[in-house]
Amino acid sequence: MTKGSRGRLAEGPRIRTMKKPGQMTKVTWYGHATFKIETPGGKTILVDPWFQNPANPTGKDDVKTTKADLILVTHGHSDHLGDAIEIGKRTKAKLVATKDLGAAIVAAGYPKDQFGTETTGNFGGTIKALAGEVSITFVPAVHSSAVDDRPAGNPGGFLITVKGSGTIYHTGDTDLFGDMALIGKLAKVDLMLACIGGHFTMDPTRAAEAIKLVKPKQTWPMHYGTNPALAGTPAELAAALKKIGARTNLVAKKVGESILLSTPL
Question: Does some domain include residue 259?
Answer without folding.
Answer: no
